[in-house]
Amino acid sequence: MQRRRFLQNTATGIAAAVTGLGRASGLGPEPAKAASNAEPTAGGVELNVRAESFGAVGDGATKDTVALQAALDRCAVLGGGTVVVPAGNYLTGSLQLRSHTTLRLDEGAVIVGSPEMADYAVSQVRWEGRWIPGHVALVYAIDAVKVAIVGKGKIAGCDALGGRPTKTAPLRHPALIEFLRCDGVTLDGFSTSYHSMWSVHPTASRNIRISNLFIRSTGGNGDGIDIDSCSDVLIERCDIATGDDCISLKSGRGEEAYVLGLATENVVIRDCTFADSIFACIGIGSETSGGIRNVKIERCKFTGAKTFALYIKSRVGRGHSLENITAEDLDVSRMAGGFLRFNLTASGLLGEDPVPGLDGIPNAKGLVIRNVRVKDVPVLVDGMNVHPLKPLEGFTLENVTGTCAKGITLTHARHVVLKDIHVTGYAGPLLSIADVTGRGLEGAVTIEAAKAPEVVVAPAVAYKLQ
């Protein structure tokens, strides 16, 4: 285990030196302020993709990939600026943004994804928490600084290209918008549509501002925004309706992510509206092997979910920690599962190279939720799945009003604070606990905790990055 920690520290140091993405632990900068560094490059050239030198057609039938990419490349070599896409339907394969480039989609402009998988470049991409070969997104950037997509237009993926890789077709399918190892990303004002795959997926990036997006992604694994091993992120004033999670915060799975140690941290989500038809509105995990910390959710409306409005999840074999997560001033209705669940023992697939021993049991601490209004939620809080070897350290639930069918269940938790829980309509006890200490537990009914999974046995040969 000492060798593993040495490898982790070494790999983290290398990653920080090479990419500048390593982040110190602790609270760090205020996320909303840090994300202001994402402002796109001011000034520079302005290039119109319909100019004669580029020749984009925008008729929805002619492939405009070459014309659009030429404009983006020209903008970059001239020192940066703005590439303007006027009204029209631009059929295209994958497009790469370079540093200091803003892609502006005018009202009525639609970037339409090609139905040909061969039109999407192949690179190393993240899929379910591991780096694998796969197709890049319809619009993407790699190792870029200060890139932006703005305007009132739309980016529409080809729904036929969504889905999961298979043994016979192992390449990951293209996401819609993806940023890999970028510093300074701005997304503002446009709308998206795509089925069965992620819409917005920044990975190993920092200084990200996502605002005023209208995201529609239904059917299958159709996440809205996936923040994957990123730091200093602001998401605000977005309207997201999806199949899978509206927003997912994650940091990789198993030994690879545990050794690299790239956390998702310093994230603010505010003034958004969420609706989901397959899983959760906001999912934190289950890929947590790089750690997730310093998350603030505020002034959001949750208008429907197949499971829970907030779902904090991991499993034995993921390892690392989820810490300092605050949610306040929330309106929650039409949940099929409930308001809040934390499942820290058995969410998601175990996968290859899980983290062995006690290090593989995720640690959660500093969860604070207050000022919540719920309407007819089936369950207020489901906290049954916490490992007894690493209890939840610090859970505050305060000032909750409204109606629910079932109350609060907590197991293996320390320093719990329950205060001003004024809900009605529930059957059975308001509070059921097993191995819980703290304040506000008066009148609780004692229950039997769920059986905890065994820790992962260490392999005969220690894991190493390769």
Q: How many beta-strand elements?
A: 35
Q: Which structural class fits the helix and strand makeup?
A: mainly beta
Query: Any guess at the CATH architecture of the largest domain?
Result: 3 Solenoid
Q: In what range is the share of β-strand residues? A: over 45%
Query: Whole-number average pLDDT?
Result: 91
The radius of gyration is 22 Å
Question: What is the percent of helical residues?
Answer: under 10%
Describe the structure.
The structure is a single chain. The protein has 466 residues and is mainly beta. The protein has helices at 2-19, 31-34, 65-77, 254-260; strands at 45-48, 59-63, 81-85, 88-92, 95-96, 101-105, 109-113, 122-127, 130-135, 139-142, 145-151, 154-156, 177-180, 183-188, 191-193, 200-203, 206-211, 214-217, 225-228, 231-236, 239-242, 247-250, 264-270, 273-276, 282-284, 292-302, 308-313, 321-333, 338-343, 363-377, 381-385, 392-404, 408-424, 431-439, 445-446. It has four helices and 35 strands. The strands form two sheets. The chain has a 33-stranded parallel sheet that branches. The protein is globular. Strand 8 (122-127) and strand 9 (130-135) form a beta hairpin. Helices cover 9% and strands 46% of the residues. It has two domains: 37-204, Pectate Lyase C-like, CATH 2.160.20.10; 245-456, Single-stranded right-handed beta-helix, Pectin lyase-like (Pectate Lyase C-like, 3 Solenoid), CATH 2.160.20. The model is unreliable at 1-34 (pLDDT under 50). GO terms for molecular function: polygalacturonase activity. This is Tat (Twin-arginine translocation) pathway signal sequence. Keywords: Glycosidase, Hydrolase.
